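Worked example 4.2. Below are the chains of a multi-component assembly; read each line carefully before continuing.
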Amino acid sequence: VATYTKIPKPTSANYALGYQTFNTATQNQLALRDAWALRHGAVDFQPPPANAQSRPDWTTWLGRHNDERIPRDVVYVRPRVSGASYAVDMLAGHHATAVSRFAAGAYFVRVLGLQNYWGVAAIAAGNLAVWAMARSDYPPYGSTSQSGIWVFTYSMGASSLVAVDAPFTLAVYGS
Amino acid sequence: MPFSVIPSKAWKDSLGPQALTTMSENLRYLRRASAREHRWSNGQHNAFEVPRIVGRIVANAWTGSYTSKFIFSHLGTGQYRFVFAADGNVALSVGSLDPSLLRVQLNSLRENPVPYLATYTTYFSAGLLYLDVFVRRLTSTLGVAGNAWALIDGDVDVAIHCPPVPDAITYAALPQAFTRGVSLPAVASNAADWATQVQEAGEIQRILSAEHVSTTGEHNVLEVAKASGLVTWNGTAYSTTSSTITGITRVSAGSLQLTHATWVTPTGAFVSPDYARTNGGSPTAPIIVNARQQTTGIMNVYIYAWDQVNLWWQVADADFFIAMHGG
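Applying the procedure described above to all two chains together yields the following structure tokens:
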């Protein structure tokens, strides 16, 4: 394994560059490459996706974090009432690409580009006793066959749980 | 351009110009790798998905990353406030940010043997961005019908995400190509180009060292979890495929200890219930999971399920995902 060794910066135009210094410099580059590649993507170029249903493999892109201990995405989901109907919106992230509302307090966040994934949700309605749980869609549940994470939000009734719409942050972990 | 491995040179081998030019291209590659999700100026992580701040509200105080210029207060029972002034927190630089772009992970630390919940609110007012965190605990008795909750002063782990901040990238101009037939000592500009390469490699090493173990590249900062994984319950025992969770001890129903490498405190966790993959169960069964460190090497996990027949909370075993942070 190459290690990084500091090289003195030449201060004279008459600096004599020898092969040993050169080798140290190339070993330094290898050490840097290996260290960055450990938890970051290392692929400098990827072709565009073949069709609209696929996404670039973000997990391998040069410099992107590539570790299941680091969220791959963090999105904000905001349900809203539009007339007599309900809607929900979310700015798409790298992997969490869309959200659907299936019922009060039941949301499906589609996840692309990860083979294994989990979510951690936090309710963004602090003045209410509401809580959320995120569950990766495996095995499939409900009426979708897409890959993603279900988020269920509940309000605490005095003696019951009530499914209720609430905004939340969803951090998506995975690999 | 991809990274190219340059063969080692021996005495009397030519050092250029192709090898020197390849070195420049490699440095450009490394520059892109380091600058994509890190601040070139100081090496800090600079990506939405990597928490900018991780820490814990404990005893109405804040302990965690970025305490300087950090405005934190105890508003009332179970209510805590972070204020992000326009110039109040250099690390965040979120002065005029849309509140929906400030995103949060929370984990309530159980202090009594009942479930806890944490929620948050963000809003922008009079030129300041606010983040309020609320902590509640179940006041009904486990195993007795009821679902009453009340605000309580409780510890809570907090991770704050926000968009990348602009960063002034001060690249040195790397040589495009070295010229055949001239030696470094003979041409002053070539010597300067070599000096630039040496300096550039040093800059990239500096950025790496800021929040990573410089010799390996492993993360070494509170904001990045040191262990994570899915923990599953098969009806008899817990297991995990995580290589960073080194042991699981089931203390009793709904109570277990996860063993991990020893870290400097504070250690915290962010946790969520998952499907009961190997033990049946309803995918929508309401479950609350709280985590609290036992020691610097052990994380306690407490699980509660809502009994939809008897309408009460009770301890339960369940699958969950957890990410654990330590200094």
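Take a moment to check your reading of the output against the notes. Residues 103 and 163 of chain A are 9 Å apart (CA to CA). The longest helix of chain A spans residues 19-39.
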